[in-house]
Specification:
With 68 residues, the chain is mainly α. It has helices at 5-39, 51-60. The longest helix is centred in the first third of the chain and has 35 residues, at 5-39.
Length: 68
């Protein structure tokens, strides 16, 4: 069996495509997990947040890079 340049390019594209799909899946999973965590929080109650809840709130409401 002989590998040619087009075989290597095709293999590289396949690896990149699988990496992109995996990254998007993990990101989607994190978003769903945050929605579950935040939906379980009591509404309108102030208090100490768990680190996981703080991360989800920061993810949902990122601060603007610059002020207007």
């Amino acid at each position: 069996m002989r590998l040619e340049r087009s075989d290597l390019i095709g293999g590289a594209c396949a690896v990149l495509a699988l990496g992109l799909i995996a990254w998007l899946s993990l990101d989607s999973w994190a978003i769903t997990r945050c929605e579950e965590i935040l939906s379980g929080m009591p509404a309108g109650e102030a208090g100490a947040l768990l680190p996981e809840q703080e991360r989800c709130l920061k993810r949902q409401n990122p601060r603007p890079a610059t002020e207007n």
